[in-house]
Amino acid sequence: MRIGFIGLGRMGANMVRRLVRDEHEIMVYNRTPEKSKEIEAEGEGAKATYSIEELVGHLEKPRAVWVMVPAGDATEAQIEELLEHLEPGDTIIDGGNTNFHDDVRRHVALKEKGIHYVDAGTSGGIWGLQVGYCLMVGGDREAVEPLEPIFTTLAPPGGYLHVGGPGAGHYVKMVHNGIEYGLMQAYAEGFEILHASDYELDLEKISDLWNHGSVVRSWLLELATLAFKSSGQDLTSLKGWVADSGEGRWTVQEAIDHDVPAPVITLSLQTRFRSRQDDSYGARVLAALRNEFGGHPVKSS
């Protein structure tokens, strides 16, 4: 199948490589042309283009273009530019971490122009080339079905599902990421307890051990083993500063909107915020209050 692909970042480039490996023809475009040239030079199957007009011009009708750029303004601008060149019957696939509300809005706006819109929640990170990407796809059935050869190539067996109508793909991916926040926080707290123990524990071996028959075994735990192996169990080469993509926030907001208690996901999100404070003002207030009412010891800055 021939499609256009916009965005050759860490995930996008490997997605193109996986598609080419299965003999799809991919017209690629990236804001920095060096990335496009690099992918094209790797072998047959990917052709570099240097404008959206050129990319669209190399596609057969009805055209399909996958957008894999940062969510928000960048995706919005890319879709607007595509609309200058696409025609009724064509399809835009957004594979980024878009807010599902934006998907619903875009679906309505593009439908008025006769253009299909598909949202593809994509999980797999930098490992996707090797093991495949989990794809949670939303959109109208008539728009999704013609693209299934692409989805089944990108995904491992059982790793693709059309989960529902417009926005459903990114909605499911949003909650997926919220769950991920909670899982990662539980592992982080558990390993911190082990690290603080009076026992001399080998965390690399313990994390590997838990992946053999334990109820807490997981791919995240495999990644913990790799991290301890590469960086040492003290992780001294890393700073404990943790970003969030926005999907954890949206998951918490959905929980609030639907009166669903989600304390673990909410607290894991708040802990990420705390990781970005070298010297928390709130912690200083706590120390001051304890000193005032109880004369408890404090440390000067």
Description:
An eight-stranded mixed beta sheet has the order 3-2-1-4-5-6-7-8, sandwiched between helices. It has helices at 10-21, 33-41, 52-57, 73-83, 100-111, 128-131, 141-144, 148-154, 168-196, 203-209, 219-231, 247-257, 263-275, 281-294, and strands at 2-6, 25-29, 46-48, 64-67, 91-94, 116-123, 134-138, 160-164. With 301 residues, the protein is of the alpha/beta class.
Kindly provide the radius of gyration, computed on alpha-carbon positions and rounded to a whole number of angstroms: 23 Å
Strand order of the largest sheet: 3-2-1-4-5-6-7-8
**What structural category do the secondary elements indicate?**
alpha/beta
Q: State the separation between the terminal residues, measured CA to CA.
A: 62 Å
Number of strands: 8
Major sheet: 8 strands, mixed
Task: Please outline what is shown here.
The chain has helices at residues 10-21, 33-41, 52-57, 73-83, 100-111, 128-131, 141-144, 148-154, 168-196, 203-209, 219-231, 247-257, 263-275, 281-294; strands spanning 2-6, 25-29, 46-48, 64-67, 91-94, 116-123, 134-138, 160-164.
Layout: helices, strands, pairs:
Layout: E1 2-6, H1 10-21, E2 25-29, H2 33-41, E3 46-48, H3 52-57, E4 64-67, H4 73-83, E5 91-94, H5 100-111, E6 116-123, H6 128-131, E7 134-138, H7 141-144, H8 148-154, E8 160-164, H9 168-196, H10 203-209, H11 219-231, H12 247-257, H13 263-275, H14 281-294
Parallel strand pairs: 1-2, 1-4, 2-3, 4-5, 5-6, 7-8
Antiparallel strand pairs: 6-7
Helix pairs in contact: 9-12, 9-13, 10-11
